[in-house]
Amino acid sequence: MDASLFTVQPASPEPIYRQIVEQLRRLIAGGQLGAGDALPSVREVAGFHAINPMTVSRAYGLAEAEGLLERLRGRGMVVAATGRNVQTQAQRLTLLEPSLLMLARQTRELELPADAVLRRLARMLES
Amino acid sequence: MDASLFTVQPASPEPIYRQIVEQLRRLIAGGQLGAGDALPSVREVAGFHAINPMTVSRAYGLAEAEGLLERLRGRGMVVAATGRNVQTQAQRLTLLEPSLLMLARQTRELELPADAVLRRLARMLES
Amino acid sequence: MDASLFTVQPASPEPIYRQIVEQLRRLIAGGQLGAGDALPSVREVAGFHAINPMTVSRAYGLAEAEGLLERLRGRGMVVAATGRNVQTQAQRLTLLEPSLLMLARQTRELELPADAVLRRLARMLES
Amino acid sequence: MDASLFTVQPASPEPIYRQIVEQLRRLIAGGQLGAGDALPSVREVAGFHAINPMTVSRAYGLAEAEGLLERLRGRGMVVAATGRNVQTQAQRLTLLEPSLLMLARQTRELELPADAVLRRLARMLES
DNA sequence: GTGGTCTAGACCACG
DNA sequence: GTGGTCTAGACCACA
C-alpha cells in the first residue's frame, strides 16, 4: 500500500488526525480515491510518518463515521461506495474556499500585488 | 486605536494568540504598521473581539520577544524600530510561501485545474 | 524526573516563569542538561514548588521559542539538539556578566573593600 | 545637583522606584551620602534618566517613610540625621548578601570554576 | 500520562 | 489609563 498517500505536518497547529481526514475528503472528492480502493494500514501510515498509530486510527474512525470509508473485516479500510464520492468541479472549488480566503487575507496584509501572488501560485501548480 | 486591526477566528485550529502574532508579522513586513506606530491596547482588542485580555497580552508579549514590538512603560505597545521592518516584495512573498504550498497541495488533491483556481483567487484579490 | 531541578523564589521581583527560563539557559550552557535530556513535567514542577502549572508551561513555551527545548508530542519536553548547547567557559562567563556588574556597583555604593567581598564570595563558592 | 547619582535600568524586572530606594540605602550605609546632604530634585533625576517624575517622587517618598530621607520645606530632600546612617562593614556586607547568593547560585548552574569568577570580579572592582 | 489554550478575576507596576 | 503576573479550573490534542 502507499503509505505516502498522506502529507503530515506534526508541527502544524492543525491536529494530525484532522489533517488526514481532510486529505481523505479531498482525495475522494477529486476522484483520486475511488469507491472500493484500499487504504494503507494504520501501521503503515504510522510507521512511515513516525506518528502514533492511535492518531491514524482516530482519523480512519472519524472518516468512517463521516461515511467516507468503510471497514471491511480482514481487509482493512476501503473507500465507501456511497455514490456521491466524486463531486463536480464547482463543489470541489467550494472545498478550497477557506484556504483561498486565508490566502487572500494574507496577501492583503502583506500588501502584495495580486499578479505577483498569482504568478507564484501558477508556477507551483505547473510542477 | 483601531481594535479592528486584527482578524480573529476563535473557531480556527490555530490558537488566537498566534493568529495575532502572525498578522502582526505580516502587517509590519508589508509596511501597514511602521516603526513607532501605536497598537490598540490589550483591553481594546480583547473587548472588540470578545476574547480574554490575557490572550491578547500573550500575543503582544511574544511579538515583543520576537523584536516586532516594543513596550513603552505605562503607554502601551508600539512597533519596534529595528530597521528590518518593511521588507522587499520578495521577502514578503516568502512569508506567503507556506500558505501557497498548502493551497497547491489541496488543489492537486482535489484534482482541480490550475486555471479554475487561479481565476477564483484573482477575483477575490480584486475586491 | 527531578522536579527540584529549579530554584523558585516567589517573592523575587523577577517573574517566576523568567526565573525558570534563565535557569534553563544556564543549566544547558553549563552542560548539566544535555541534548535530549527529559525535563520534569509541567505538573511535577508546579506541584513541587506549589505554583500554577500554567506558570511553568509558560516558561517551557518561551524556552521552546528560544530554541532551548523541544516538545515531543505527548511525551513532554526535552533539551533541544541545536548544537550550540554546551558553551565554552568564556561564553558562560558572559552569561554571568550582568550579575557581576550589579554586584560591583553595589559594592562601590556600599564603599566596601574589594577583598572583603571577594573573601565572602570565595567562602560561598567552596560549599 | 548630581542627577547621575543613581543608576537606573528601565528594562530590569526590578521596579525603577525600588532600584532608587535600594541605591539610596546603600549610598547612605556606605557613607557616600551623609546626614544633611541634599538630593537631586525629582525633576532633575526624572529628566536625566528619561523616566516619569512620579516614579522618582515615589522612591523619595518611600525613602522618607523608611527614615532615610527628610523633606525640608523649600529645600527639597536631604539625607536624614538619624544617627544610625553609616553602618559597620559587617552590616554593609549583609546588605550585599542577597546579590552574593544569587551570583553563587548562577556560578554553580553554569558549572564555572570559582577562581575564574573571582578573578573576573576582582578586575571589575579595581577599576 | 504529556503539553496547550482559554477564561475569569485578583493584584502589581508604571503614567 | 497602560501592560504584566499569577491563580484556579475547564477542556483539547496526543501517547
Keywords:
homotetramer, 127 residues, mainly alpha, two-stranded antiparallel ribbon, 5 helices, 2 strands, globular, DNA-binding
> What structural category do the secondary elements of chain A indicate?
mainly alpha
For the biggest sheet of chain A, the summary is:
2 strands, antiparallel
Quick one: overall form of chain A?
Answer: globular
**Structure annotation, total helices of chain A:** 5
**Might you state the CATH topology name of the largest domain in chain A?**
Arc Repressor Mutant, subunit A
Look at the structure and give the mean pLDDT of chain A: 86
Do you know the CATH architecture of the largest domain in chain A?
Orthogonal Bundle
Distance between the termini of chain A: 25 Å
Q: Please identify the oligomeric state.
A: homotetramer
**CATH class category of the largest domain in chain A:** Mainly Alpha
Can you tell me the CATH superfamily of the largest domain in chain A? Winged helix-like DNA-binding domain superfamily/Winged helix DNA-binding domain
Helical content of chain A (DSSP H or I, runs of 4+): 40-55%
Task: Find the biggest chain interface.
Answer: A-B, 42 and 42 residues
Order of helices and strands of chain A: HHHEEHH
Residue stretches of chain A low in confidence (pLDDT < 50, at least 5 long) are none
- Total beta strand runs of chain A: 2
**Whole-angstrom Rg of chain A:** 17 Å
How are the strands ordered across the major sheet of chain A? 1-2
| Percentage of β-strand residues of chain A | 5-15%
Number of domains of chain A: 2
